[in-house]
């Protein structure tokens, strides 16, 4: 891993941490709030590619685990990773890696609509498919109830998917993926 790649990984971990400053929207019927940090996960995956984005999100989870207040409300620690939000958080490196992998595969013919589809499939659906059953397990409810509760995230996450696609499209020329493609 080059120094530049390490810097990108650290910068995106920091970016996702800064997105925690946007106040979360609590939902009364499930214990997981709506946050904008998933926007950062989608941007990281599509901008950095599979390897660097996966490392960046693992770094972010390490920051959470050691107790740095990088989640909304200043939450942190191992207790957060094994609480109701834990499945969503643990899915972020997987989602970023999958977004990066899919983006790298279509990079030569990349269009905004393709990025939106990639973000919806791997950024919205994958995170919810992993996070909702974990939340259901922790809260001792049925998986079906967890998935139904997770539907509340879909409208906002789809908007974030579109925003992330537009941002990455605008930054495509300076992406590490572009640099690797031109070698």
From TrEMBL:
<feature type="transmembrane region" description="Helical">
    <location>
        <begin position="86"/>
        <end position="103"/>
    </location>
</feature>
<keyword id="KW-0472">Membrane</keyword>
<keyword id="KW-1133">Transmembrane helix</keyword>
<dbReference type="GO" id="GO:0015225">
    <property type="term" value="F:biotin transmembrane transporter activity"/>
</dbReference>
<dbReference type="InterPro" id="IPR003784">
    <property type="entry name" value="BioY"/>
</dbReference>
<feature type="transmembrane region" description="Helical">
    <location>
        <begin position="144"/>
        <end position="169"/>
    </location>
</feature>
<keyword id="KW-1003">Cell membrane</keyword>
<protein>
    <recommendedName>
        <fullName>Biotin transporter</fullName>
    </recommendedName>
</protein>
<dbReference type="Pfam" id="PF02632">
    <property type="entry name" value="BioY"/>
</dbReference>
<comment type="similarity">
    <text>Belongs to the BioY family.</text>
</comment>
<dbReference type="GO" id="GO:0005886">
    <property type="term" value="C:plasma membrane"/>
</dbReference>
<feature type="transmembrane region" description="Helical">
    <location>
        <begin position="30"/>
        <end position="48"/>
    </location>
</feature>
<feature type="transmembrane region" description="Helical">
    <location>
        <begin position="115"/>
        <end position="138"/>
    </location>
</feature>
<feature type="transmembrane region" description="Helical">
    <location>
        <begin position="55"/>
        <end position="74"/>
    </location>
</feature>
<keyword id="KW-0813">Transport</keyword>
<keyword id="KW-0812">Transmembrane</keyword>
